[in-house]
Specification:
With 326 residues, the protein is an alpha/beta fold. The chain has eight helices and 14 strands. Helix 1 runs parallel beside helix 6 (167-191) and helix 5 runs antiparallel to helix 7 (223-232). It is elongated, with a radius of gyration of 24 Å.
């Protein structure tokens, strides 16, 4: 790779919070940020405008901000050409970049991706890593090509997934881990020392976007699988189930913390339906799964704040034999 021997002119492309630490670090680097492309502002509930952290970062640093509905439109491409960028740095942008766009920056575009590619290509790599019980993940920076997340790898940083880590917590941690990786890659571009590694297509796995309904807990899964699901679905779409109360009511509840039952507290599950409460003694709430039992530690009844299980049991008269599920 040819050496640049000078600071790079960078265009940032991103929207989500995941991009924020890495993009902030660019302002402390020797490189020049000449523009940012981010998603258009949108209104939330009550028609209040969502906070837009990357736009705010750019405005704080007097960087031109562009918010096209379609980044590949002729007008958007014209604006990018006018910035005369060496490289586009992309993270959590939410739009696919066309081949025509990728040809505009002198060095193309790179993407910060929260998985160990080629595993978990797609929009939700952290969620799927936790959902599938992975113990390791990391940051991959790769050269963007028109095919989704398929370009050659430029640098990787691995990390262990902590036993209780949720998607939100791990995403936040990875966003900070991306900072030194990005700085190494930029220095490699500047010095011409980068080495590209082609992704092995036989190891590709996908991590597509989910629907809200993916949050529902399937009690036919094993206790371990449900525990992974509950961590993976936080903060969105949130892991939820229905508690069938003895008076005939159904209570929707988000379950936010569980443990796979240790042998010493397991209850006899002979003949128990999936989702049945096998133990309820004021401090412990155990539930039958497709394999093993799950101890519920914290949940949020509909319309109530999240609470530890002891507090929940103080307010709801449950007993062994009551059931979670549809």
């Amino acid at each position: 790779m040819e050496s640049q021997n000078k600071p790079l002119r960078l265009v940032m492309m991103g929207t989500g919070h995941f991009a924020l630490p890495a993009f902030r670090s660019l302002y402390d680097s020797p490189h020049e940020v000449v523009g940012i492309f981010t998603q258009p502002d949108r209104l939330g509930k009550g028609h209040h405008q969502h906070r837009h952290p990357l736009k705010e970062l750019a405005e704080e640093n007097k960087t031109p901000v562009f918010q096209p509905q379609n980044v590949n439109s002729p007008e958007s491409l014209s604006r990018l050409r006018a910035l005369d960028a060496d490289l586009c740095v992309v993270a959590a942008y939410g739009q696919i970049l066309s081949a025509e766009l990728l040809e505009i920056p002198k060095l193309g575009a790179i993407n910060l991706h929260a998985s160990l590619l080629p595993k978990y290509r797609g929009a939700a790599p952290v969620l799927y890593a936790i959902l599938n019980g992975e113990t390791e993940t990391g940051i991959t920076i790769f050269q963007i090509e028109p095919k989704l997340d398929a370009g050659p790898i430029l640098d990787v940083e691995k990390t262990m997934i902590l036993p209780k880590e949720t998607t939100g917590e791990l995403t936040e941690r990875l966003s900070h881990q991306a900072v030194p990786v990005l700085q190494r890659v930029l220095e490699g571009f500047r010095k011409g020392t980068l080495r590209k590694t082609i992704q092995k297509t036989d190891r590709v796995t996908k991590a597509p976007s989910l629907k809200k309904s993916a949050g529902i807990i399937d009690w036919s899964k094993t206790a371990k699988e449900i525990a992974c699901h509950i961590r993976a679905m936080q903060p969105w779409p949130n892991p939820f189930t229905f508690l069938n109360l003895s008076d005939g009511r159904q209570l929707r509840a988000i379950i936010s913390d569980v443990e796979v039952c240790a042998e010493e507290i397991l209850e006899d599950s002979t003949g128990r339906e999936l989702g049945t409460i096998t133990k309820c003694d004021g401090k412990n709430l155990l539930v039958q799964t497709g394999e093993g039992q799950l101890q519920i530690l914290e949940l949020k009844p509909e319309g109530k704040p999240s609470m530890p299980i002891a507090s929940f049991l103080n307010g709801y008269a449950l007993e062994a034999g009551d059931r979670f599920g549809k």
